[in-house]
Amino acid sequence: MKNRIQGYIKRARFEYLMWNWRRQSRRNTRRIQQWQQSFQASSAEVVLGAHLALAGGVRNHLLAIKRFSRLNVELVPTEEQLQKWGIQPFYASAQHVQQFVETPPPPTAFAVHTHVFPQLINWAKLHAPGKLRWVHTHHLYYYPEHGETGLEPWQQRLNEAMIDGARNADVCLSVNRWEQEMLLRDYGIRAHFVPNGVDVEKADSSKPDRFLKNNRITAPFALWVGRLDPVKNPLAFVKLALEHPELSCVMIGGISKDDIRREYNTEPPANLKLLPAFSHEQTLDAIAACKALVVTSHREGLPTLVMEGMALRRSIVIPQERGCMDATDGATCARIYAPEKSGDLNEKVLSAMADSTSNAAGRERAVEVLDWRVITRTLDEIYKGKVPDSSPTATL
Fold it and tell me: Which of 75, 77, 285, 350 is the most buried (most CB within 10 A)?
């Protein structure tokens, strides 16, 4: 009798799982169909995406192009659809992905701009030839140190998709110069440097006093923003705080005292304030409030954080790393430390903290070169057919 009851329970669980799977599948089918209808009915001139990240740099990149372009840009899916449905309809099954890929472009579209995710890259491979100008932006490649034990399978798939897009697009753009060189050297792909941008207008709306009040901070402080990730190298900032107890240090990103004890076998010092991951607006408030913005990453693409610091005239300390130095034009807008040189980070941070001047050069570069309002004018011209400079080291 007991075995029979257990059998009934297992059967009921199986039936429920199958029912729920069918329900989810029908729901995803309806949502793909709704997306197809809205996409076909749009008056899009430029198809942009795939817009499938709820956080991070690629998401902010896409939203900025949508906001500042003077053309009719259609995010795929739209921001409203992504917030309402999540990514499930566009990942759930091979059938739904195929439905997405086979959807024809709106009759008004003349360009497609792909980024990272394979869904729209595969869509462009099918629909762009002879119909749409295909622009592809290459973002930061995933390297072995980005995974816990080398590249994760999903990272490898995105790498393959990024190279597929770069290789097949009419125009390939790179957000930094060092990967522009990598694409040519390793894959024979000629890319053109069009940097990631910064929303200067949004940065200017930041409220430093709000950050100071909400977090009960009174002393001038050095700021680090990031996650518990070996590539971001938070240990260097923790060591800075340990070696300079007189220095007020703030870390944003959710690293806890237990994380520091476990990962670094040390007790967090009293002068190190650990704060959770913040919204973009809260992070901008923190950047505006800090005395020095410190980046310790081993590898970066073209870090928005650094560009936001420049827009807000902050003193900035960066490692001798190509992505960071592309953003700051070398030492023009930042102090650069050599990671292999003992004490160099500390020296540069103390110098930045003692500096009473504002970063005027950083502000000028952010406004004149890196502002999204400047960059989207360049992109609009590319969408309409402008041929980039043939030099692999030229910008537009």
Answer: 77
